[in-house]
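Input:
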Amino acid sequence: MKNLNEIPVTDVKGVGAETAKTLKELDIETVADLLFNFPYRYEDYRLRDLSEVAHEERVTVQGEVLTEPTLAYYGRKKSKLSFRVASGHQVVKVDFFNQPYIKGKLAVGDEVTISGKWDKGRAQITASKYKKGHQTAEEALEGVYRLKGTIRNKTLLKFTVAAFDTYGDDIVEILPEKWLQKYQLISRKEAVQFLHFPKNPEDLKQARRRMVYEEFLLFQLKMQLFRKIERERSGGVSIDYDVNDLRHYIESLPFPLTDAQKRVVNEICGDMKSHFHMNRLLQGDVGSGKTVVASIALYAAAKSGFQGALMVPTEILAEQHANSLVDLLQPFDVTVGLLTSSVKGKRRREMLALLADGQIDVLVGTHALIQEEVVFQKLGLVITDEQHRFGVEQRRVLREKGTYPDVLFMTATPIPRTLAITAFGEMDVSIIDELPAGRKQIETYWVKHQMLDRVIGFIEQEILKGRQAYVICPLIEESEKLDVQNAIDVYNILNGKWNGKHSAGLMHGKLLPADKDQIMRDFNDHKIDCLVSTTVVEVGVNVPNATMMVIYDADRFGLAQLHQLRGRVGRGAEQSYCVLIADPKTEVGKERMTIMTETNDGFVVSERDLELRGPGDFFGKKQSGIPEFKVADMVHDYRVLEIARQDAVDIIYHEGFLETEEYAPLRAFLEANGVFGEQKLD
Ligand code: ADP
Ligand code: MG
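Output:
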């Protein structure tokens, strides 16, 4: 059997060196690339009963040329070629504009197929395409491919036909018969054939079903193998805490855990106790109580003789988390240390010495923690906060630091499940889907820019009540200058109005890190009433006295981001508000603003965001770790994704994937396609 990945596309009939260059722009270099480059849509040339075709719809008719084609010129270089065609019982008038050369090719009595736009009243077709004779079944649905350079759709289709004729039989089945039977899937070869040359919509449907399943299954197999290898890597720590002692800690918290918190604590502690490496994602909306959960895990680690680390994106967050953890853990003789870049000189050396000596149980710091010369005596647990921006690779680097501690990733961006199991497919996922009782809902309003004055009045009211406010301006990545200007303008307007009565602070990307920290601290200490900021206020910042979040040009943000920002308020006992200022131009834009005013539930917001923007944009521009599928669509095919995931787990854990003959073609395929990457199957 030939490996189509190794046969250059120039071996396909008709593809020369020049064409190969153009194809390369489409990432087509081998026969496999060509055969698996599928159309993204199909032109429908199927014949229909003319009485069912609506005015101005596209139509294809077949019949006999009744009248001699006549050519009329008008204007400069403009022409119209007209003739009549008998199609069934109906006579149809056909007009071709500006294609005079067709005249010589058609004569009375010829059988033709004509496609174009239907004028119902005049029984006329403004034709765009003709073919002498009748079209074949495969021509009725014509694949439309992504194109680049000079290559035309017809040409690409021709090459694909040639490739399939020569190499079609080398497209071997990789799925075991059992799975094909179970889901009634067509063969791999047929699926490729039907995706390129479908005879009818049913072909297409079956081909898609097969390919969607295959793509998801291959991807999930990769993720699950990765997960298995990671979990079972030798040297995993077992954090053997005392259950009763841990229960005592939990009972002495100032509040009972929510059911969701209890559930995730069980999941996390189960992982910690086992010899497997924990590799878990903890999702929970802002304020759902993740920090408390983290403290429980850290407590368990510390009391079992291990050290724990908590890493967060910014120094200010590190300080906040350290304070919370000191309050929670210190009464139980768990020592908490803070290591940021402002801990310097002698103090830093002392801190590092204490850490190496095992006298600090829990270390809090920024992500720089793992990159620096920090040595733990016995690191058993690493928790990171807000890590969703990191792709699979970065997450692996983190896990492989030093020994292999248990790792818990926390994120406050609710990630729709479909995305979670793709972007984080190699991880286990825990979800806190419940807020502690008695939380006040944040009231969200959407207003137009012309209401700015009233919004400022609203801010002032809150300030007079002793509260604080944020005004966030969007980060326009292409134009940082404009972006800063926006914030400065708003800041100046506020100062102009308030004239020293209330204090505003300004924060943007051009400030030095130390200045940014100072401003955040001043806001935290209520030296600033209203903070105007371009840089998205540090995720996770906690200033409970802030009750108002105003977002300028809110339509420039993703919904998940807006929800994150909104989560900066509503952290204290007072009623909080979120005001979105935006004049969206599109219906989708308006819908997005409306969604924000309708729900406070982060998971609802993120599901809607995914529907509206698609998976590629969900995590923003940064590396998302989301793979590109050729046929499958994570949003629309999510049910198949769930099934494929479960099947992948079954195949790997119960079906003897690595041993049995049944899976040999699948194993060979995965290996040949480098799906295992650097990973070794040992
Ligand atoms: P997150 O990190 O998920 O945003 P936190 O852990 O900071 O949330 O919790 C937000 C607030 O809710 C904190 O003040 C915390 O003390 C409180 N909290 C956490 N869990 C509960 C609970 N089960 N009942 C009541 N309050 C809680
Ligand atoms: Mg938090």
